[in-house]
Write a structure and sequence with these properties.
single chain, 20% helix, alpha+beta, 6 strands, globular
Length: 115
Amino acid sequence: MNIQNKRQHERKHVRLKGNLISEKVQRKITLVDLSENGLGFLTDHTHKIGDVIDVELTLAHNCVINLKVEIKNMITDIFANRIGAKIVEMPKNYLDYIQQFFQKRRSPLMQTLSA
């Protein structure tokens, strides 16, 4: 089955810093895509499908958004683990941010990343 057919929402590729908080340990991650109901990120840590963890996104101007996500898929290689997760607790500021992000051609996020 083509994974694109399973997507409920459009996703955008990004490069964002973030933190993963699991078992009271904080690890750095790189977010690689965002959508209205999920995200993808790279990490050096492994998780089980179904694990629920906290993810902290760091946006422009050091704005932080905290999300609770459920691990849906993981691809492992020798360099990093690519994890796909569904957002299970979404704060309003994330939804506001992601809607702005998808409406603008060049969002403040991308301007910050390219600066």
